[in-house]
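FAQ: What does the model actually see?

It sees only this:
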Amino acid sequence: MFKPILLEAHNPGPMTGAGNNTYLLVASNRDAAMVDAGVGEPRHLAALDRALADRQARLDRVLVTHGHADHASGAPVIASAWPAAAFAKHPWPDVDARYGVDWQPLADGDVVMVGGDPLTVLHTPGHSPDHLVFWHEPSRTAFTGDLVVDGSSVMIDWSHGGNLEQYLAALERLRGLEPRLLLPSHGQAIADPERVLIAYLEHRRQRERQVLAALRAGDATVQAITESIYDGLEPALTAAARENVRAHLEKLKAEGRAVDEHGRWRM
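And it is asked to produce this:
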């Protein structure tokens, strides 16, 4: 059964790149599950309908990696088109209520069966408090949501529950599983996970060194540190860069290496 079908969500943009990936899994008994819900774009829904019809399958459930709009906002449209489908994610109450579906809760260690295939739920917070990875042990494949994107980096949205320390722990946890294939929600499939995960960890260490250097140079605000590190950044990405910087500063603060004095930071 385990041949994930890539269905593009058709939502390109500054923060989503070419757009989101969703993945349809169809079991031999014709039950089907989809990882992530997209945004309700008609071409995505049409592709889902065709994929199910071609396989004479029924959409049994939608497993959402986290509550950000590009992953979850398509849920009500899908629920209207496929009313028998169940929707499941890790709870994030303040966000979940926006989407108007009855979310089934998923917790770390849960196993979701798609036909005879198990998907193990891994709670991997950091990018968001509710972030999940779905792990298929038999093939050593991980549906990684926004944990990694090959060739790019991931925003740690501190203002909305992001946490850099948790994010780094999630990367290490995934690396420890020794996956063979990562299927992210953005970008291409990753066939060399070890390379990408090591690069992600080193990227964050490099950013931390840059933040510390900026503090030593007297840059005392998130804005000033962002400008010193992300010189020439596209304006559309500036807010995300500030969130990353704040996440690094909060990590340093938690470790006793930086102090926040009413919005002005120092070593």
